[in-house]
Amino acid sequence: MAIFGKDEMEGVTLDRALLPRHVAIIMDGNGRWAQKRGMPRSFGHKAGVEALREIIRHSDHLGIEALTIYAFSAENWKRSAEEVGALMGLLLEYFTKELDELHREHVCIRILGDIGDMPKGLERQQQALYAAMEKTKDNMGLKLNIALNYGGRQEIVHAARVLAQRVKDGEINPEDIDMDRFAAELYTAGLPEVDFLIRTSGEMRLSNFLLYQLAYAEFYQTDVLWPDFDRHAYDEALLAYTRRNRRFGGV
Ligand code: FPP
Question: What is the H or E stretch that residue 6 is in?
């Protein structure tokens, strides 16, 4: 089905049937975007939330099943108190102001990461995150997964620990542990495989994001800084995906 006007995509149409089911995004470049404008980094994060809004709306419009975004890594606490404070403020504002609209759009929110283990003083954020998941848990629209206080290695170690405990308790045998059982202990349990990873701002790293889940994902990077990543840039990325030849190790 053609969804672009000729002016938007130079006559190219995007075939919805070929779109990824699950898109993951590393939203990078907020700081540089702000610095280029002589503004503090928090200004870039604020603009980043606007970009995120547009990408969520467009994902929903395109019928993408799951969107997973990297909002705050387990390592991001190392940033200055000012920047962490600004990000946590934006987070609270986002979940307070946007929740009703997301719910109306049938978006189902899941937080990936250890929200029980956030520093003291962030209780309001924690409550808002739990409330967002609870309110939207039965929604059947876009599955919006927000990685927060998230680390891929930490997630894998956590899963290994849970399974080791089950073996110790005599519930399962070591040989029962296969890929399905392992994946069932990850934050992404039950979600479709990640098909497509987008990273903005020209960096070519995984930064501890979805290390298990990205095994066969197609990777796309663009020099566009996250606050400038609009639906047209997203369409371009998705078009590139539809032209990939995925082989999953075969020929
Ligand atoms: C990376 O850019 C971006 C982040 C660490 C934060 C991303 C967060 C948002 C877009 C908004 C918060 C999310 C929600 C759900 C409200 P960077 O700061 O590392 O940029 P740089 O590489 O240019 O310094």
Answer: helix 6-9
Residues near 163 by Cβ (< 8 Å), separated by ≥ 6? 172, 177, 181, 182, 185
Residue 209 Ramachandran class (φ > 0 left, ψ -120 to 50 alpha, else beta): beta
For residues 146 and 69, the answer to whether their CB atoms sit within 8 Å is yes
Instruction: Tell me which of 60, 76, 114, 139 is the catalytic residue.
Output: 76
CB burial of 14-32 (b: ≥16 within 10 Å; e: otherwise) equals beeeebbebbbbbbbbbbb
* pLDDT, tens digit, 9 for 90 and up, residues 74-117: 999 999 999 999 999 999 999 999 999 999 999 999 999 999 99
d(CA 178, CA 248): 19
69 closest CA partner among 18, 118, 23, 132: 23
Name the residue among 219, 180, 181 with its Cα closest to residue 203: 219
Nearest CA to ligand 1 atom 1: 28
Average pLDDT, the chain: 95
What distance in Å separates the CA atoms of residue 24 and residue 196, rounded to the nearest whole number? 6
Tokens 């995984």 locate to 206
What atom of ligand 1 comes closest to residue 76's alpha carbon?
A: 5
pTM of the entire predicted model: 0.94
Q: Whose CA is nearest to atom 11 of ligand 1?
A: 49
Distance from the first to the final alpha carbon of the chain: 29
Bin 152: left if φ > 0, else alpha if -120 < ψ < 50, else beta. alpha
DSSP string, 50-88: HHHHHHHHHHHHHT-SEEEEEEEETTGGGS-HHHHHHHH
Two tokens, residue 164: 């080791």
